[in-house]
Write a structure and sequence with these properties.
globular, 1 helix, about 230 residues, 7-stranded mixed β-sheet
Length: about 230
C-alpha cells in the first residue's frame, strides 16, 4: 500500500500556529488534536512488507508542530518474507518540530525501514524520538533499520544508521538487544552522559541519545535517566 501524509504549519495572526495543509491517503489518516499538534491514525493493520509510507512535514518560521501517533505500529512480514516495509519522514523546519510517535513493533520475519530526513533553517529547533521493539511477547524478533539525517542551513549535524535483528551485521546473539530508543534534539547543547546501556553525545547546537536492551520500558527509562531539558545550556 502507498501512503502519503502532508502537514504544513504556519505562523498566523498574533503568532498563533495555523495548519493550512493537513491531508493523508493510504494507510494513515491525520487529525489535528491541539493548537499545534496532530496525531497519525492507522486506517489499516500494518505496515505490511512492501508497504511504502512517506510523511512530509513543513514548519515555517515562527510556527510550532508536534506529531504523535495514537497507537504503536506493528510491522508485519510480506507474504514472501522478503520485502521490507518503509516509512520515510521528510521535515523542512524553520520553526520548532517535535516528533514523538508511539513505538514500532517489528514482528517475526518482518523487516521495517524507518528514515528521517530533517532540513533545518538557522534558528530552527527539533526534538525527534524513536522507540522500537523487535518481536511481540514470546515471538522471535523481526528486523529494523533506522536512518536519521539532520542538516542545519545545509550543513550536516547528524547522519546515523542503526540496523537490528536477524540478518543485521552488528546484531550478534547473545549480545542482541530487542529494544531500542533514541532522541535527537537541536536547539541547546548538553554534555556527554552515560548510563546502563545508554549514552548521550553532544552535537553542534544540540545532542543525541540512544539506549538499548531487552525490554522497551527499561530502555525508555534509561534514556530518560540521561537527563534533558533541565540540563540544557545555550
Amino acid at each position: 500500500m502507498i501512503t502519503r501524509v502532508e502537514v504544513v504549519a504556519r505562523c498566523g495572526p498574533g503568532g498563533r500556529t495555523v495548519l493550512p495543509v493537513v491531508r493523508a491517503s493510504g494507510q494513515l489518516a491525520v487529525r489535528r488534536t491541539g493548537p499545534t499538534s496532530v496525531h497519525l491514525v492507522a486506517t489499516a493493520f500494518g505496515p505490511l512488507g512492501g508497504d511504502d509510507a512517506e510523511i512530509s512535514l513543513v514548519v515555517e518560521e515562527g510556527a510550532r508542530l508536534t506529531v504523535h501517533s495514537v497507537a504503536a505500529a506493528v510491522a508485519l512480514p510480506a507474504r514472501d518474507g522478503e520485502a521490507a516495509s518503509v516509512q520515510r519522514v521528510h521535515a523542512t523546519v524553520a520553526g520548532h518540530l517535535t516528533l514523538a510517535p508511539e513505538p514500532t513493533v517489528v514482528t517475526a520475519r518482518a523487516h521495517h525501514r524507518a528514515e528521517l530526513t530533517a532540513e533545518l533553517a538557522d534558528g530552527a529547533t527539533l526534538d525527534a524520538t524513536e522507540q522500537v521493539l523487535l518481536g511481540r511477547a514470546g515471538e522471535e524478533p523481526g528486523r529494523w533499520t533506522g536512518t536519521t539525517r539532520v542538516e542545519r542551513a545545509g550543513c550536516p549535524l547528524l547522519h546515523t544508521t542503526i540496523s537490528l535483528g536477524p540478518g543485521a551485521p552488528a546484531w550478534l546473539p547473545p549480545v542482541a538487544p530487542r529494544a531500542y530508543a533514541a532522541t535527537a534534539s537541536i536547539g541547546a547543547t548538553l554534555p556527554v552522559a552515560t548510563g546502563q546501556d545508554a549514552v548521550r553525545l553532544p552535537l553542534d547546537g544540540g545532542w543525541s541519545a540512544t539506549a538499548w536492551g531487552a525490554e522497551l520500558h527499561r530502555v525508555v527509562r534509561a534514556l530518560a535517566a540521561l537527563g534533558g531539558a533541565d540540563e540544557e545550556v545555550a
